[in-house]
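Much of what follows relies on a compact textual record of a protein's fold. A complete example follows; check for yourself that the lines match position by position.
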Amino acid sequence: MATNSTSVKATLKITSFIIRLLMNIIFYVLVAFLIVNVSKEAFQFTYQLYGPVAVEKEPGRDLIIQIKKGESTMDIASKLEVNRAIVNKYSFYLKAKIEDVAIMPGTYEINSSMTYDDILKIITDYSQSLIQDQDITEDEE
């Protein structure tokens, strides 16, 4: 009887060890997977922020974007993302805030092959607006 009890205890110890080992392996694989994916996303976001990112290769598509007076930078970034002029509204928003640019109301022609810098140069220069001598307000449209 004592041998039976000893063999059961030994089996339980071995089983417990194997289960703990497998749980540790699964945990560390998940941690490594998360680190790789978070690093990849951080790299992509940083590249969008500082690299020459465009939605399409040249020649791209011409887009007319209307920016209203009082519209926030995030609203403009959302509008650009919906029209597929930029890759990510958050990276565009952050780039505009870091560069501390004043986006001017107006109607602008941009292209889907333009980088964030190119788009910011256009929408911060009122002389690039297609419709001038007219304030575009929230009520119009």
